[in-house]
Give the backbone structure.
Amino acid sequence: MKIGIIGTGWVSDLHLNALKKIEGAEVVAIAGRNETRASELAQYWGATTYAKPLSMLESESLDAVFILLPPHLHGELEQACSEHVKAVLIEKPISQSLETTHEINGYFKKAGTIVSVGYMNRYRQSVQKARELFSQPGNQGILANGWWTTQMPPPLWWRTFNQSGGQFAEQCTHLVDICRYAMGDIIEVSAYATGGFMKEVPDYSVDDAMVVNARFASGALASFSTGCFPHHDNSANPDGGIGLSLSSRKHRIALATWSLEGVVYSGESDKETIPTEEDIFYVQNKAFLDAVASNDPSGILSPYEDAMKTLATTLAANESARHQNGAPVKVAY
């Protein structure tokens, strides 16, 4: 399986380390504007490096490509991939424009491209357990509460709203996606955002904090809160600001930290602990490459069209907070 990588940010390390564990996976090319960083990532594989992704696509005979770029750099690249490779894995968020994603989806459909989106948490045992429990008759999810209050990520593009979309769209999107996966589609959101507290950060245009309420097609409800202002000084539990609670009439599933370790509470005293995966990127990437090898995408848990719905939900929240003064906004797919 000859693989090309587009992007050299920190998430590229996670994907490349996972690919090292997958038998038959061979990274033959890495493209990125940071040529020094691309060369460092390529050393283990002896991969060829390219400054421009299109040059890589035209020069290499690839079975699959991983697009590991910020959300504002999508569009023409996906079109080129659809013309040159059979399969693509795209990191979330897939864009900052629904219009762009509809165009991209058209390219993929026309070419018959196998596509997986990097909502890796769908593959976790804890999330699968929640989906399984809530699919039981009379036990649908009723309420979700999620929070993502962590340090601001260091990349310069992240602090620019027009590039990242802010924390709810770029990070808390994972929690929104889990809720959609376990409880069904979200049809309406309302949100408030605040800013002006991060005065020492130059070129900063994202929100300092945000609260979002959501209504599902089933009638279920959810609330989310985000903040990107704390310093990363808690070495004992640096990801303690991430969590999600999912509740039905019979169960509550508590997911904690970035690894989303799970505890299922049933009745007054019964509880089941669900351990986290050692490398969830390995699980996700293997499912993707298995789909490519078999030409059967059924094992991919986050297809492109479904990721479009998660993006639509987060963009609707931004619309409510920034342009509608907190008024409800319908989620348009």
Q: What stands out?
A: Residues 304-323 form the longest helix (20 residues). Residues 137 and 250 are 11 Å apart (CA to CA). Residues 2-120+281-301 form a domain with the Rossmann fold fold (CATH 3.40.50.720). The radius of gyration is 20 Å.
